[in-house]
Specification:
- The protein has 26 helices and 26 strands.
- By secondary structure, it is an alpha/beta fold.
């Protein structure tokens, strides 16, 4: 068998002559190269970005192919507007819509600020942009980045393509390493594998293979250990692995003997990527986070609280407060840090209302926070007091250090709701950024799902028993079936099919999907608003998974016709035969959508739900979230997904009058999952599906299976105070 010689990537600067097809995701056009072996020829260029306009200059890196149907084409894995050389090209560059934040209107402002020539002034004095009306630091950064991409990065992208990187991976590597990307990766493609978003193990392996790095090379083995431990702890929700588990996980990833892995374990620990504590192996950031939480709590506990006798006469309880709720209010005003726990309907909200009222009466500033936008919005609605996300208030940037220098000190009384959703990293960052003199009340339901990320912070705080805590257990809500089944689950007993918490058998996921649609139609005919129905599911895949449910529910509930919205990638799904299929979805005006990533620039957070109020195909969507209309343009559109149905994990912090959940056997199911789903309902909950799977999941305790070191760190650190 003869091996096919790999064609090296080429770098071209081309001028567009005729556009055949263009969109933000894909463009085909005829162009004339300005240099290289294809000079004076017209070529067909296919690239995976746009839009493209005639007479634009593009830098492209890719390969020539001979397509059986379309003939010779230049397929560009990297494409960017070429850096402008003239005033006219600069105007086209700014007004192209491809430089984030810039458009024709901003070009007018630039011309007013530089009447003798914008390009000449920018090249001589780029800082003049700081004084132009409407130009933000983010816009200046995007212009600088786009200019750099079009000035000399194409050869780097060509080399990265030769090494097997796709466009998104190459973008991530160039963003991190800049012009040194090729040299740094040739030296060690594994060096920053967990620090570079969008860069993963398979890509590093491809680069290593191209640079003749052997399977047992210490650079590869140490990085493999780090990646394997990181992924294993994340998948299990643990903060550490036993040493034998760490070695086995790395062996599975690397395909080398255990002895090779064991020989490099000490090097990985010495390099600071992993931490060894007895037989335990931690990812360094999780070990550090647990120690930070313990140290922060020890420091706060060591501070003397306020005298209860002086506070009691000054509290202003709501008339309906029980003695236990009043005790919780008194505790929160007196203690430096404490906890309030309880299930749904047990009066946590009433206690918080009374606490906020009393704290303000005592002259204390009050800050209310929650881990997600949904939880914060629900907290604000329930208490009548403004609430925000932890990330927003404390300027925590996922994957970064955040803006500590710009952080306004948080003092007074800080109330943090939905603490069960706090993972170890977020809890450490939060406590580190709250002023040392502040009083903190942590509020949560210990029976809910644990955090998506590693750790079980609320469970460990309760186990360690180092903080004052009031637990509310009397149910006040008139929701008999939901409350009864919640209590039965806490006791580990099978749930019952009751009028307001019904179990409806279904023989197949397809049958369950039909029942869900029938129930939604029935609720609609009874006058229930769409927003009052929350459809939850364990998984994304399958006939009754999130993707299939959203497709069916959109056809039923969307007020806009098919074809009127923006079609975009929606992830992958696994078919029954095991094959993986790419999915797309159309976002239309009137659709219910969810934000899937945090964005400090837009002021939105993962998990927030809104409604599309305007669509400009194919460029942008306006979405109303918590009363504010936010424009999602360019790549920001990909932060949105349909939310007629969401997974149970995404429902944490949500609440709705009616909950409908199709349930079949899945590794996701657990007592905490089912408890969270049922307790999202204020009026009624309907579970449709495999009755055996529904009852069996009550025996599975995911939170209890998580291995963490926080409770021990708390006992050692706080106990020594």
């Amino acid at each position: 068998m003869t091996a096919t010689k790999e064609v090296a990537a080429k770098v071209l600067t081309v001028k567009v002559q005729r556009v055949r097809s263009t969109s933000e995701q894909f463009s085909v056009y005829t162009a004339s190269p300005e240099d290289g072996p294809l000079l004076d020829l017209f070529i067909t260029v296919k690239q995976f970005c746009g839009p493209v306009r005639s007479q634009q200059r593009w830098c492209v890196a890719g390969k020539e192919i001979d397509d059986p149907r379309w003939g010779k084409q230049f397929v560009a894995q990297f494409a960017t507007l070429a850096a402008p050389r003239t005033e006219g090209e600069f105007s086209d560059f700014i007004a192209s819509g491809l430089v984030d934040g810039w458009d024709m209107w901003k070009l007018f402002e630039l011309r007013k600020a530089a009447p003798k020539g914008v390009l000449a002034r920018y090249l001589a004095e780029p800082e003049f942009l700081n004084d132009v009306d409407g130009v933000t630091p983010e816009m200046i950064a995007s212009l600088r980045g786009m200019w750099q991409r079009g000035s000399g990065l194409a050869p780097i992208y060509a080399r990265l393509e030769d090494w097997g990187c796709n466009g998104r991976q190459a973008d991530a590597l160039v963003k991190y390493y800049g012009f040194e990307a090729v040299e740094r990766l040739r030296e060690n493609p594994y060096a920053k594998i967990l620090e570079i978003n969008g860069y993963g193990w398979k890509t590093a392996e491809s680069i290593a293979l191209a640079n003749d790095i052997l399977a047992n090379d210490p650079r590869r083995v140490e990085a493999g250990l780090e990646v394997a431990v990181h992924e294993a702890t994340w998948q299990a929700g643990c903060t550490w692995l036993y040493e034998g588990q760490a070695v086995q996980a790395a062996r599975d990833l690397l395909g080398v003997p255990a002895a090779v892995v064991e020989a490099e374990l000490a090097g990985a620990v010495a390099g600071g990527h992993l931490v060894r504590d007895g037989e335990r192996i931690y990812p360094e950031h999780l070990y550090r986070a647990e120690q930070t939480i313990a140290a922060q709590i020890a420091q706060r506990v060591s501070r003397h609280g306020n005298d209860y006798r002086h506070i009691a006469p000054r509290i202003d309880p709501i008339d309906t407060c029980s003695p236990l709720q009043t005790q919780a209010v008194l505790m929160a005003l007196a203690e430096p840090i404490c906890m309030l726990t309880g299930g749904p309907g047990t009066g946590k909200t009433t206690a918080l209302k009374s606490l906020i009222r009393s704290a303000r009466g005592c002259g204390l500033a009050v800050t209310c926070m929650a881990p997600t936008g949904k939880a914060a919005a629900r907290m604000a609605e329930a208490t009548g007091y403004p609430a925000t996300t932890i990330h927003s208030r404390l300027k925590i940037v996922p994957g970064g250090e955040g803006g500590l220098d710009e952080l306004e000190p948080v003092a007074g009384l800080v109330i943090v709701d939905e603490v069960s959703m706090l993972d170890t990293g977020l809890a450490a960052a939060m406590l580190s950024r709250i002023g040392p003199a502040a009083q903190i009340l942590l509020v949560g339901d210990p029976d809910q799902l644990p955090s998506v990320g590693p750790g079980a912070v609320l469970r460990d705080l309760i186990r360690a028993d180092v903080l004052p805590r009031v637990h509310l257990d009397h149910v006040y809500r008139n929701e008999a079936g939901i409350a009864v089944n919640a209590a039965r689950m806490r006791a580990g007993e099978d749930i019952l099919s009751l009028p307001d918490c019904e179990i409806v058998p279904a023989e197949s996921p397809e049958g369950a999907l039909r029942r869900v649609l029938d129930l939604v139609r029935a609720r609609q005919s009874n006058g229930t608003d769409d927003s009052g129905i929350l459809v939850l599911t364990p998984t994304n895949d399958g006939p009754s998974g999130r993707l299939a449910l959203n497709t069916a529910l959109q056809a039923l509930l969307s007020p806009s016709p098919q074809g009127s919205g923006i079609v975009q990638y929606a992830g992958t799904s696994t078919d029954p035969d095991g094959s993986i299929r790419k999915r797309s979805e159309e976002l239309r005006c009137g659709d219910r959508v969810m934000v899937t990533k945090n964005s400090s620039q837009l002021g939105v957070f993962n998990g927030q739900i809104g409604t599309v109020v305007d669509v400009m195909v194919p460029r942008s969507l306006d979405v109303e979230i918590d009363g504010e209309v936010i424009n999602f343009a360019g790549t920001n559109k990909h932060m949105l997904t349909l939310a007629y149905a969401i997974t149970g994990h995404k429902s944490q912090g949500s609440e709705a009058p009616i909950v409908i959940a199709p349930i079949f056997r899945s590794h996701v199911l657990s007592r905490e999952w089912l408890y969270t789903v049922i307790t999202r309902a204020r009026e009624s909950c309907t579970l449709i599906g495999d009755v055996g799977a529904i009852q069996a999941c009550i025996k599975v305790r995911r939170a209890q299976e998580r291995r963490t070191g926080l409770a021990e760190a708390l006992a050692e650190t706080v106990g020594a105070v």
